[in-house]
Amino acid sequence: MSLQAGDLLQMYRTMLLIRRFEEKATEFFLAGQIRGSFHPCIGQEATAVGACYALRRDDSMTCTYRGHGQAIAKGLDPREGMAELLGRRTGCSKGKGGSMHFTDPRVGLLGENAIVGAGVAIAAGAALSAQLDHTDRVTLTFFGDGTINQGTFAEALNLAAIWKLPLVLFCENNLYSEMTPIRDMVAIDHLTERAAGYGVRGVTVDGYDPVAVYETTREAVERARSGEGPTFIEAMTYRLVGHMIGDSEVYRTREEVGEWRKRDPLTVFPERLVREAVVSREEIARVEGEVAEQMAEIVRFAQGSPWPDPSEATEDVFA
Ligand SMILES: Cc1ncc(C[n+]2csc(CCOP(=O)(O)OP(=O)(O)O)c2C)c(N)n1
Ligand SMILES: [Mg+2]
Fold first, then answer.
1. pTM here?
2. Does residue 145 lie in a domain region?
3. Which of helix, strand or coil describes residue 47?
4. Domain limits at 252?
5. Ligand 1 atom at minimal distance to the Cα of residue 143
6. Nearest protein Cα to ligand 1, atom 3
7. Which of the two ends of the chain, N or C, has the fewest CB atoms closer than 10 A to its terminal CB?
C-alpha cells in the first residue's frame, strides 16, 4: 500500500499523541504519581509509528521498557496506558504491571519487557506458533542497540534464520545502551553485519523519517508473510531526553543532543507535509487541537479510575 495524504496525517497524529502522552506521563512521574521507573521514548516516535503502520491488528509485537509509544502505535487504547501508569484497575494490565509491562493481546501487543533481549525470544516463539498454525500472522519485535550482545538475541536470530520464521527484528539504534555509547560495545560500523553473520537480511533506515521506516518495515513484513523469513532492520534514531527520568546525561554533549533536536520528527515531518502540499497548515492545526482534546480525555479517564483492590493482587498470576 502506498501512503495517501490521510495516512500521513494519521501517522503525524499518532506521533503527536505519543509525544503528548509521554510529556504528561513525565509530569505525573515528577509529581510522584507514577511509581517505579519510567523510560520515555521522546524523539523515537517515528520508528514506533512507521513500523506499526506496516502491521495488521492481528500481527504480534513485543517491545521493551521504552515501549509506551510502540504500544499506542500498535493500537493500545492510550487511556488504558495512562491508567496503567497511574496504577489503576482500568489499566491494560489491571494496574499491576506499570510502565514496563504494557500488554494487550486484543491488539497483538504481547508485552513490553524489562529484561534486555527477552522480547526478541518471545517474538521468535510467537512467530513459530503462527508458522505452525499455518496462519499468515507476522511478529515484529522492537529492541535497542544494547540488545545486540545478548545471548538470547543470537539464539533467537539463528532460530529465525534456520526456520524462516515470519519475524521482523526491529532494532532502534539510538546510539546508547543506558549510558554506554554503541561504539564502545561493538567493533562493527553497522549492526546489520551481525544479522548477515546469521544469514539474515539486514537493512538500515533513517529512524527519524516515518515514511522511510514504514516502507522498509512494509517490505520486511511482506517477505515474512509470504514465507521468505526474517529481516533485521536497523533504524538510526536518538532519544531527545535521558535514558530514564533523573538521568544526568553526562555521557553525551549538549551539542550532540542539539543536532538531533534540529531533526526532531515532530517538527520536521509536519513541516515537510505542508511544504510538499500534501496537507494544509489548517489540517495540521486541526490534528493538534484534536490530540489536545484526546489527551484531556485520557487524563480524565485515568485519574477518575479506581485503584485495584488488594484482594486482586494474586489474580492473573500463574504458579
Ligand atoms: C538482561 C538485562 N541486563 C541488563 C539490564 C539493565 N539495562 C536496562 S536498560 C539497559 C540498556 C539497553 O539499551 P538498549 O538495548 O540500547 O535500549 P535503549 O534503552 O537504548 O532503548 C540495560 C543494560 C536489563 N534490564 N536486562
Ligand atoms: Mg539504545
1. 0.98
2. yes
3. helix
4. 5-303
5. 15
6. 116
7. C
